[in-house]
């Protein structure tokens, strides 16, 4: 490693908790949180209903200026802003977990077909079983995503190792296949339902409501700590499988759990706002470049980066060409692809791991 | 049949509304998302419907925010509605933006033909009482008279609306009496979509409009009708669209395409001069199904139908709107 | 069963020739099947009658001549072009994963047409093929350059990944333009999905000559592709001017791809699937692979389009969806079997 980084050591009285956290990472995390808050504030102050910034701040502080402004800020803008941040965090974490599990720096839920699988499940639900309530959507999305993840697992177990690129290409092939099935389904379905499905597939955060925020929030609150806990164990595998096994780490189980969590995160996020690509790819890499850190802190930074990314994408999409709104998914693709290319060009070698 | 059921509905609505005929507020309206109570007679009315402005203008109310009357239409209302417009409503198109609606500060929001869902209803309800469609109906399936009546109830003009609805029904009856030879003749309204003929079937408001004059849709079309309000007919098939009267709904943009349709020379409507080519304003007047435009539509359509249904090939290619 | 004794062994000439009449026969049958099938049931007798003693006053004849025939012709041309282009690409880049769509050419062509039509307002049909060619060429160059920069160089895998990235980017840009300019876009939306329904056959007047030339050129250049596939040094040692040859081949591929996109929108996976299937029969001599690929491609697209039209009556599935449904799994299999 390079020159010793400054660390902040925290020990609880009974030495039950001992943390050694790099200062740079902590500072980065704090700054990112600040940027996120700033973005959220701007987002809360932007919209077709003209609200001055000080009025927004007053409303947030609890001083009700008028019922209309309260509604606009709390009921229309707030859910959207929160949803953007949560979705960004979830997709980023999903990508990080995916990259760790597959040990492939180019992995992203939308590049391995997980997002498309979730999308197909939701479209199937909308078109074929329209009577089923919307509350079932996240579960259907999860089922679809898991099936795809299993398929990818099965496909990549061919020979020893295999290049990162090969894995991604198989994922792209699979996701193309799934997308074509989704398209076929929409052709066959009733026109009304197909239109509803189409608008959801565009991937827009605008229609997010408080119930969506609750869904995202609860799942995030459950899956993030789980991921942190598992990741601790998986850091042992970085030293090699043999070492890990000898340390008593159940690598197979850990790996599958991580994959399951990655899939769940992507599926839930997709079920609420539609497929959102490239966030899971970029955020982990950006986090590593901003500040190297241990697993736990790294995940938190990754989540923050993802949240900032999607919040910004949503904001720009809404405000840049007003009144026309560009879905955040398109913007993440526009930013994501060039970054993906840069990552490809800079990646280590394509040799097997 | 439709005349009778419309009359029945009107009577029922009349009966239900009798206490409210005196137009006492508060008014309670039941709809698919629940119940809405409008406390006092609204001054500022928001309309999110397709063609919502027509009903309101005819009842003497200028809305504060309204949807585009037609795709990219240059003005807020059709030409024959301009004189009734007393203000400058905000015009929007596409998805409904709750913030925009809130910015116009409405007292009531009318969403009877706008496709709002539960979530959007909840958000809009925070701004003002929302009037939505009765339960059990598809988003755009509310018949024109019920739509006008419910909107009228929300703004306290029910008696006036009822009178205009009755007048329109009377006009329909008058046309039917003057043209007994139309009863049972087939008519199809449709346009070309990507090389296929999109025919509006018996579930559609445009076909129902022609029902009022006695025309019916061809049996071959009814046979393939399922739940959607239109049927895409392959260019190879003639039966479903081989009606006595064929109303080409594409407007001026699709005129050449309509004329070039491969099956056209083989249709009996084409041989008998039974084709009507509508202009853009014509078809919007029919499509909007509002109190404002229905009388206008009847006025221009009847002469065209007379020329088309007489079996004589000498029919004008394009009708002119006064 | 053809034998592959050495990597560059040709196929026995007689055996290779014997396939051609068979394939031609299949092509004619597929063609007849395509125009015999449709929303309206027509007897084969009526179809033959319509082709040879056309009577304008009989609607059935109009159906066959004016509605079904152009579409079948289109399927033959586009199927042959894309397959031939794919075969050539696979030979030149020594990359079994090469396909005009996968390497970004179809996206580039589509993108160029969208930009020209909606941003620059050029709607005249004369320009479309040339604009598409520029787009395809540009995209191909960008994809190649990026793949070169990847560590390991322009390997088949890195080329494909680069192509996928560029395609994704271009399609996102197209979507944004769609949102910003919905008017002009309505006309393009149908075209962008890729399929043979409702296409304008008059475009064939402008596109026909370039495609014909490119097809002939491709078949003529095919023998030298085999030499090229053995490696640049070997080829040069045998007296082949590799630089010039590659440029000529690139030109043929670009013309074929761009014109196909102009006719039928972006259709993927045809150029990938067909050469592989053909190789199973004729081995690895491009002298045979190329013409066989053209014929087989025509048959394939005719078949797929027929299925698209009759699979779920009365609706029609877009042909592009079916080529993806068949081609993508094959693509996954091909990737799986590669070692690097």
Helical/strand content category of chain A: mainly alpha
Please describe the biggest sheet of chain C, giving its number of strands, its sense, and whether it closes into a barrel: none
Beta-strand segment tally of chain A: 2
Per CATH, the class of chain A reads Mainly Alpha
Could you give the count of β-strands of chain C? 0
Succession of helices and strands of chain C: HHHHHHHHHHHHH
Overall average pLDDT of chain C: 84
Q: If you consult CATH, what is the topology of chain A?
A: ABC transporter involved in vitamin B12 uptake, BtuC
Helix content of chain C: over 70%
Q: What is the radius of gyration of chain A computed over CA atoms, rounded to a whole number of angstroms?
A: 21 Å
CATH superfamily of chain C: ABC transporter involved in vitamin B12 uptake, BtuC
Describe the structure.
- The complex is a heterotrimer of chains A (353), B (322) and C (340).
- By secondary structure, chain A is mostly helical.
- Chain A has 13 helices and 2 strands.
- Helices cover 70% and strands 3% of the residues of chain A.
- In chain A, a hairpin with a 6-residue loop joins strand 1 and strand 2 (18-22).
- In chain A, helix 5 (137-156) crosses helix 10 (251-273) and helix 8 (210-234) packs antiparallel against helix 10 (251-273).
- The radius of gyration of chain A is 21 Å and the shape is globular.
- Chain A starts with 6 loop residues before the first strand and ends in a 7-residue tail after the last helix.
- Chain B has 322 residues and is α/β, with parallel strands linked by helices.
- Helices cover 38% and strands 15% of the residues of chain B.
- In chain B, the strands form 4 sheets. Chain B has a 5-stranded mixed sheet with strand order 10-9-8-11-12. A 3-stranded parallel sheet of chain B has the order 3-6-7, sandwiched between helices.
- Chain C is mostly helical and 340 residues long.
- Chain C has one domain: ABC transporter involved in vitamin B12 uptake, BtuC.
- In chain C, helix 4 crosses helix 10 (242-264), helix 5 packs across helix 10 and helix 6 (156-180) packs antiparallel against helix 7.
- The longest helix of chain C has 34 residues, at 59-92.
- The radius of gyration of chain C is 20 Å and the shape is globular.
- The two termini of chain C are 29 Å apart.
- Classes of the chains: A mainly alpha (353), B alpha/beta (322), C mainly alpha (340).
- Chains in contact: A-B, A-C, B-C.
- The interface between A and C is large, with 40 and 43 residues.
